[in-house]
């Protein structure tokens, strides 16, 4: 898709997020339907955009007034100047559409504005999510849908018929017997690959609260790619399984369900004790055994760091690979001086960052290659 088209799509998705923030229940599917509808009409025609949004984003009559007020704030040129000071709403200037299929100040200004949105998009990939305002977060959340998810795989124990591979002597002999013992073509068998299990353990304590929302959205994105291969837990003062909540297709609904499930959100943290509970209940069972385990935490431990180290070592013994993501890992001047981090580093296979969209892409790449 051309850069200008992608920028225009981003403007429309940001507007859908603004309608949701105003109180209309706009799901991810409705947002995509809105973009598809506008693509069939004309993004430069204000009327086309209005009616496409009204038909796709509004689910009930009471949504219409809220939708119209939000649309006027976003797509009225006079008000676009005021909106430009509100973070991601600066993209409104590019979306100030008129009825004559022309940009208010000519197509050149429109193209410049669209290029500015593309630059904003690239900047967001590198921004620390803890520093984003609400509008920028809404824009970033739509970019999660573009993150590539490739699940790690392993060889299956079952064998399947194939055109190449090892000779299947049983099938070969049976085929020959059917033909009276006459020699015939050789039969082969192959070993298929199947997705490997993945377990996400996300720290939701107070020190991780600026990142917890985005990290759970990332886990939701991975889980949607393989609902039966991914398990998600939160770590705080206790262990909470949120897999069922994150199976909801819409990310906002899934996080709302997860938030109601987690009793220790933004509280303290006892990583060693919580990981011991995970090992005792899940580590020796199907979830962690031969799985890729992704732990996302800054490593601040109020309990015994030695206990934390022992539990990560224990987990490493049963898992295929242990990946530890720390939001501070790639920040300038960071050194792993916390006692908790120093205790676990000898027992993890990969120590990566986790504070921006770019670092999330790198984390998914490490997970895929595990």
UniProtKB/TrEMBL annotation:
CDD domains: vWFA. It comes from Arthrobacter alpinus. It holds the Pfam family VWA_CoxE. PANTHER family: BLL5662 PROTEIN, BLL5662 PROTEIN-RELATED. SUPFAM superfamilies: vWA-like. It comes from the Bacteria. This is VWFA domain-containing protein.
